[in-house]
């Protein structure tokens, strides 16, 4: 009896070999996958967690930097400036929330005041010439709620706040629409290379094979580097804790209030957010544990003390949430991007908090470096437009405010999360998107649901019910590929 084609025993299909595997689904990795998938190569984005943007990228200060205070002449300074241009344009095309607030650096002592002219000179050396030194009375005109003792300031009119969650999701979604495979729950445990030039990543989700590997693993970049036989750097997790104040605090802060930076970092800032809140932080604490994203009593005490001196009135407002993120600090003064031609391996390490702004420029640089190393990268003739992302900012029109949209689909008029005005339609869309929300935290980052005053206490059961109705049951959690 004959068998129909495609049924019964036969040779197993040859395993897929990608031209490039990108390790790390944060902003930098997603940007690299997007950039490369715009060319005639097959790309896989490999992420250890169950969602893109669930590591370092989800918990930062969400500032779109001009790069005014980067060290002139470094790769970082060049890529931050270029990234500011690229991400500003991409945000407009993809609907990523951005607010052009501007910033002011505030000097509180003579040493900080003396440092301001040098910071202006550094900005000019970086090609940014719009900084201006201002006296204390002008600082108070810009931010009347600041505490006593301001000695002067430096304005940076083009600093902005952005939605880091939407940025990461847009880049990963764009990569997927361009044909990249997005492999979630794939923690890399071992690396092996074959004589045919193909590298196999052994992961918790199964083997992934590719001709080139790009390591953009953030906190895990040194460990991946070691799997390729290198000992170039060590990542030190640097915890930054932050307070998020209620929207009623927003009138106190219309622009970003920056400290004068030190060798330890940019210090504690006060900043508006695109969601209508005010943020205070971050702290800066080196740790050994790469999973220690919990907040601490000492961190809270530090922020309360610092906030009380910077802006006493802010501490009269309600704290909506606190959170902590880990930054990948390394003992290297610049971004560490290097290709090993023999191994067909490229390291993207030491990407600090500026990686949010520089991500798309880093992706350009990676593409150029790979091309110089011998990878054929011909630009594709036709590409889909950038995805238009759901708008979760506060300054634009949200679905619950859009009468025409509600008339077409009443689900956008059914508010589920009252603190953040999130509708049933938005939750449904987040659960059925190309890269869907699979967890409550993933839903928070896509919609703001449960991010408000009650932190899900009131709306949690209704949100959970909608997720169970619309959740991506049909797609394995570990693999999302283009269709």
Please, could you describe this protein's structure?
Residues 415-469 form the BFD-like [2Fe-2S]-binding domain. This is NAD(P)/FAD-dependent oxidoreductase. InterPro entries: BFD-like_2Fe2S-bd_dom, BFD-like_2Fe2S-bd_dom_sf, FAD-dep_OxRdtase, FAD/NAD-bd_sf, G3P_Oxidase/Oxidoreductase. Pfam families: DAO, Fer2_BFD. Residues 19-367 form the FAD dependent oxidoreductase domain. The protein is an alpha+beta fold. The chain is 29% helix and 23% strand. The chain has twelve helices and 23 strands. It has helices at 27-36, 75-94, 110-125, 136-142, 164-177, 221-227, 297-310, 355-372, 403-408, 424-431, 440-447, 460-470; strands at 17-23, 43-46, 63-64, 98-99, 103-107, 132-134, 152-156, 160-162, 181-183, 188-193, 199-203, 206-215, 235-245, 256-259, 269-272, 278-281, 285-286, 319-330, 336-340, 345-349, 415-417, 422-423, 479-480. Strands 1, 2, 9, 10, 11, 12, 19, 20 and 23 form a nine-stranded mixed beta sheet that branches. Strands 13, 15, 16, 17 and 18 form a five-stranded antiparallel beta sheet that branches. A hairpin with a 4-residue loop joins strand 19 and strand 20. Helix 10 packs across helix 12. The model is unreliable at 1-7 and 474-483 (pLDDT under 50).
């Amino acid at each position: 009896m004959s068998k129909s084609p495609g049924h019964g025993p036969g040779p197993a299909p040859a395993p897929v070999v990608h031209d490039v595997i990108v390790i790390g689904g944060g902003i930098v990795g997603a940007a690299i996958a997007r950039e490369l998938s715009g060319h005639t190569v097959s790309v896989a984005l490999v992420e250890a967690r169950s969602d893109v943007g669930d590591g370092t990228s989800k918990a930062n200060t969400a500032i779109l930097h001009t790069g005014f205070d980067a060290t002139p002449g470094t790769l970082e300074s060049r890529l931050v400036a270029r990234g500011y241009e690229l991400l500003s344009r991409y945000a407009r095309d993809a609907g990523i929330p951005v607010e052009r607030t501007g910033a002011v650096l505030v000097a509180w002592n003579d040493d900080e005041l003396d440092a301001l002219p040098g910071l202006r000179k550094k900005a000019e050396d970086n090609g940014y010439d719009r900084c201006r030194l201002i006296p204390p009375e002008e600082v108070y005109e810009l931010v009347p709620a600041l505490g006593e003792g301001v000695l002067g300031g430096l304005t940076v009119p083009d600093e902005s706040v952005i939605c880091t969650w939407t940025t990461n999701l847009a880049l990963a979604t764009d990569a997927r629409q361009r044909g990249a495979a997005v492999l979630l729950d794939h923690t890399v445990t071992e690396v092996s290379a074959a004589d045919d030039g193909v590298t196999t990543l052994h992961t918790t989700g199964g083997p992934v094979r590719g001709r080139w590997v790009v390591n953009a693993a953030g906190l895990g970049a040194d460990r991946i580097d070691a799997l390729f036989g290198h000992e170039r750097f060590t990542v030190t997790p640097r915890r930054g804790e932050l307070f998020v104040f209620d929207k009623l605090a927003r009138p106190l802060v219309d622009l970003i209030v920056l400290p004068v930076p030190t060798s330890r970092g940019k210090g504690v800032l006060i900043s508006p957010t695109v969601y209508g809140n005010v943020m205070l932080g971050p702290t800066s604490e080196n740790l050994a544990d790469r999973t220690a994203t919990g907040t601490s009593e000492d961190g809270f005490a530090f922020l309360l003390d610092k906030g009380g001196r910077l802006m006493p009135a802010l501490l009269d407002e309600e704290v909506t949430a606190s959170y902590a993120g880990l930054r990948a600090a390394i003992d290297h003064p610049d971004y560490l991007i290097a290709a090993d031609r023999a191994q067909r391996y490229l390291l993207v390490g030491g990407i600090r908090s500026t990686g949010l702004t520089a991500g798309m420029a880093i992706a350009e640089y990676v593409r150029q470096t790979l091309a110089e190393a011998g990878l054929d990268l011909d630009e594709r003739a036709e590409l889909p437009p950038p995805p238009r992302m759901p708008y979760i900012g506060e300054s634009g029109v949200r679905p619950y405010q859009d009468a025409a949209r509600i008339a077409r689909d009443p689900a956008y008029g059914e508010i589920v999360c009252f603190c953040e005005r999130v509708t049933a339609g938005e939750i449904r869309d987040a659960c059925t998107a190309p890269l869907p929300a699979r967890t409550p935290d993933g839903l928070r980052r896509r919609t703001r649901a449960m991010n408000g005053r009650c932190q899900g206490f009131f709306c949690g059961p209704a949100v959970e019910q909608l997720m169970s109705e619309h959740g991506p049951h049909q797609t394995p959690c570990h693999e999302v590929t283009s269709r």
